[in-house]
Amino acid sequence: MKDMLRSFRIFTGNYTLKTVFQMLLAFVAVFAAITLLSLIPVEDESFAEGFLTAFLPAFSLFLPLCGVFLLNAIYSYNNPITPGFKYFHSLPDSDTAYAQAIAAANLFTLIIMVLGVTGHYIYSVFAPFPLSPMISAALALLTTGITNFIGNVKNQWVRIFSVMPIFCLAGFASGFSSAMLEDGERIPDTVIWISLGVAIAVYVAGLVYALATCKKKWRRE
Amino acid sequence: MDSILTAKGLTKKYSKFTLGGLDFEIPRGFATALIGANGAGKTTLIDTLCGVIRATSGEVTYFGEDTDIEEAAIREKIGYCASSSFFPQGWTAKDIAMSMELAFDSFNREKFRTLCEQLDVDSDITKKPKPMYKQSDGNRMRLSLAAVFARETDLLILDEPGSSLDPLMRDRLCDRLREYLDDGNGEKSIVFSTHNIADMENAADYAIFMDKGRIIESGFVEDLKDKYIIARGEAADYDKAKHLLMSHSKNRTVFDGLALAENAEELARLGVDSEAPTLQQLSIGLLKYAEETR
């Protein structure tokens, strides 16, 4: 654990964690601002309700995904076009440090994900919220798993097209949930648990693949 | 020659460029300049020597005994600095100090601070230090050099350290390189690359000239100055002398060019004067010759 944190700090300095923390704060602030705005009494409440139902579910999906930025930051240093590539590749035991930093980034991603999903859950207890926190968690795990699979791929198009379906899926899930809520229904629990199970499987497979191959990929140049 | 680094058949192949196979030695206790035009392969060679990229084939012996750059002990002894974008763009001096302190046993934070002060850049105790992307190329290089010099190393490998520095700072860098060698009592060595040796002529003891991925000449600067001459004559004498010149430049009245010192007497008989070349003249002459005979 100590080595993992050491390696993570070698790769991120203070900068990356600070950026992710700022991003989290920004999300929470926007979330809180929208919630407060929705509490202001207005004549036509249907607009506020519609806005909340459509916007918040999509927005809430991004909160658990903040951790993925950490993971991507570490992976990016294995791309020669990224500033820092040469510094990190010249370090003693750089391949081991890279593997440990990826493990640590996964850990931090999970922690951020748990915090995000918990926040999402707490919010859904107090306000009508169409999207299940479990769906939100499943999508975050799926994205992290895919990020672990494609982390060392240099081709930007492959990277974009690999993650794009997840964002489409996120939009589809929030739209679908909102529509169901309007009809007084929710996504069945079985679907939610199956989604979560698939996402956990993809995440674990991605993590195992990343840790098994990252040293070799670090030395490929 | 007592070498700190020896390469045999060192080759790095890319789809459109091949470095090598190179056989060369870097003398212990001296500063070696890698000189070549843009695209000669200096950076590829440096990156290969420092383990940033892997050689396709060949072997490098470091410090007379080890051949595996993956060994942490070798990397601890090498101070490497790339020509640009060495550190992540969002990093400040604080991030650099933290990362290097964790990565290298010999990184000295106090020394880093002092060097940053001397080089007039932000240090890890500067309030609100600027990230790399907000700094000029010159300041980024100064900060990178401060980080490298803050470690205890036996071999410095610097890629174009002077290219983004102003003349005064280049002069200070040359002094700093000489101090590094003097502190090492003949045990410490430096390799630096440059495409413009004029600014760092005083820093080089040994020179390796490169063209299109191969070494075209190498040796101690003083020996090379004995081996070659710069010939100067009237334009009218050019046709008689041209078979003795390796490369030349000519206008309507005069010509000059690089020639082997062994031809000095024959050139003198033709009425052509000769003098010892500067490293800059040697570089231009040899690189021109390589280009013409490619």
Structure, explained:
The complex is a heterodimer of chains A (221) and B (294). By secondary structure, chain A is mainly alpha-helical. Chain A is 81% helix and 0% strand. In chain A, helix 6 runs antiparallel to helix 9 (189-218). The longest helix of chain A is centred in the middle third of the chain and has 33 residues, at 94-126. Helices cover 33% and strands 28% of the residues of chain B. The longest helix of chain B has 17 residues, at 167-183. Chain B starts with a strand and ends with a helix. The mean pLDDT of chain B is 92. In chain B, helix 4 (109-118) packs antiparallel against helix 5. With 294 residues, chain B is of the alpha/beta class. Chain A binds chain B through residues 6, 9-11, 13-16, 19, 77, 82-87, 89-95, 97, 219-221, and chain B through 47, 50-54, 70, 72-73, 75-76, 78, 80, 82, 85-92, 94-96, 98-99, 102-104, 131-132.
